[in-house]
Amino acid sequence: MENQPISIKKSAVNYGLILGAVLALMTTLMYVLNPDLFTKWWVGIISFIIIIALGIVSVAKAKGLLGGIMNFKQSFTVYFITVAIGLLISTVVGILIFNIIDPELAAFLQEKTLEMTAEFLQKLGTPQAEIDKQMAKMAEQDNFAIGTQLKNYVFSLAFMSVIGLLVALIFKTKNPNPLN
């Protein structure tokens, strides 16, 4: 019984590495094939779904390793480890691409994001003075700076943890033999 928590943590780490590899591959392919994909909203939705799906698969696998009996803490821990590792790998790849390999891409994407936001605000009928104010505020932010990416990692992990709490509630089971 003592080895089971270690095996579920090892499983969670493995799934975290898989998640990180998938997210890193997505980022690398977007960089190589079409950097404009970084500005598409649906790419974020796909990433979000992949993160949650692999977190759930990791918890389901761990539950199987435990013979179908898993408490809330074990379930959440497995989900959290998987997502934390996956997002960390993805963040490191983003830092490498946008700060070391191709900083010009970060500037290009920042400018493209400003243009898209201005167009969107114009379509909404936002007054030009308000658009200018918003653009000036956004221009001051460097969304690809190392600090910003690390901050985004923390916020993403916090948000995914809330989802992890829900996943843990769904997967937890009571031990039918409480003496074990």
From TrEMBL:
Pfam family, any one: DUF4199
Residue stretches in coiled coil: none
Keywords of the record: Membrane, Transmembrane, Transmembrane helix
Chain segments annotated as transmembrane: 12-33, 39-57, 78-101, 153-171
Keyword Cell inner membrane: no
Record's protein name: DUF4199 domain-containing protein
Organism: Aequorivita aquimaris
